[in-house]
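Please check this protein record:
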Amino acid sequence: MTDERAPVPALAFDPDLAWGVHPQVALRDESFGALAYHYGTRRLLFLKSRPLVELVSSLDQYESATAAIVAVVPPEQRPAYRRALARLAASEVIGVR
């Protein structure tokens, strides 16, 4: 017997897809970065750097997360930001467009 209320697993993060802020997420700028509130899951997350907020906010302007990372993030920091986006995808802060 399956439980119909079981959560649907989040899509694995593929940086070659087009991503954007999830439609049910609101970002609120703060001095440390931003607060991300997901109205569907009622989860509050902290984005602890302004560059990460800028990257997340600009995702919808690029054809893929990789293109956004290349445009916004210095080369030596790209692996860390790719991991951060993967965590945000798992938390449903960002989603595939």
